[in-house]
Automatic annotation (TrEMBL):
This is HTH cro/C1-type domain-containing protein. One of its GO terms (molecular function) is DNA binding. The lineage of its organism: Bacteria, Bacillati, Actinomycetota, Actinomycetes, Kitasatosporales. InterPro entries: Cro/C1-type_HTH, Lambda_DNA-bd_dom_sf, MLTR_LBD. Transmembrane segments: none annotated. Residues 33-84 form the HTH cro/C1-type domain.
Length: 285
């Protein structure tokens, strides 16, 4: 609905303006500047709108910008495609997503598909980045975490996550950017809002990343794991929208064929399978 997210849009524009330097947009860099990034007046000139109008947008007093205006400001601020769509949503220019349900159900056909990836890590997540379902190899990979299903909370609250993810800071940044993008989709999701409130209060690192207002989709990512059982594993992840269920994504992680990481991943799967078999055996009396 138009006019409901002016303050969110204003906060987003202020944060992104602070991240663009005059040199980024071909403006002179000499002289003292009292603000980080561009001045409001500079963004207004670059976007072809009045300085007063742009100020009202940042202050949340103008809540019905046109798509043309958002396009122009996105260009001035050098926004990427994910950030542009996020700005459109905050401006009320796109229909809101259907609300997601706390107990997301994964279709049985998708569960069967994941199990058909014996050499790949596969799991289904929702926009809150909760793991809704996973195959055996994904279970093995994430086994060091106390609660691998609540991934965002685990990343910032579970010390094991900082050991498991070799480049924890990059993973944390990507995660918060994806969660911020989700907040644009589901602005009335109480569970997402609760996650954000909790982590802002408990994690200064999360709070700083959240204030940055950067957004990005899951896309294609490379992650390096330091698993306590098998050592280093490098995986390339690709995210796929689950067409039949809005707000669900299939993540598939693969190691390069013939690499040490592929061997380590295969070993991890074997160890995990052996552990399950041992747990299933009755104890001898």
């Amino acid at each position: 609905m138009r006019g409901m997210s002016g303050h969110e849009l204003g906060a987003f524009l202020r944060a992104r303006r602070s991240q663009v330097t005059p040199a980024d947009v071909g403006l002179p860099t000499s002289g003292s500047r009292r603000v980080a990034g561009l001045r409001r007046e500079e963004v207004a000139v670059l976007a072809g709108v009045s300085a007063d109008y742009y100020a009202r947008l940042e202050q949340g007093r103008e809540t019905n910008p046109s798509g043309q205006v958002i396009d122009a400001i996105a260009g001035a601020l050098r926004l990427g495609i994910d950030a542009r769509w996020h700005a459109y949503r905050l401006a009320g220019l796109l229909p809101e997503s259907a609300p997601t349900h706390p107990h997301d159900q994964v279709h049985p056909a998708l569960l069967q598909l994941m199990d058909a990836f014996p050499t790949a890590v596969a799991y289904v997540i929702n926009r809150r980045l909760d793991v809704l379902a996973s195959n055996a190899l994904a279970d093995a990979l994430l086994s060091p975490l106390a609660d691998p299903h609540r991934m965002v909370r685990s990343l910032f609250q579970d010390p094991a996550a900082r050991e498991l993810f070799a480049d924890w800071h990059s993973v944390a940044r990507d995660t918060v950017e994806a969660l911020r993008l989700a907040a644009g989709h589901d602005r009335h999701d109480p569970e997402l809002a609760a996650i954000v409130r909790e982590l802002i209060a408990e994690s200064p690192e999360f709070a700083a990343l959240w204030r940055d207002h950067s957004v990005s989709g899951l896309g294609r990512k490379t992650k390096v794991f330091n698993h306590p059982d098998v050592g280093c594993i490098t995986l390339t992840y690709q995210a796929f929208d689950v067409q039949a269920t809005d707000g669900q994504y299939l993540l598939v992680g693969t190691a390069e064929t013939g690499s040490t990481g592929a061997d380590s991943l295969a070993l991890l799967g074997s160890l995990h399978a052996a552990g399950r078999r041992d747990d299933a055996r009755p104890s001898s009396s």
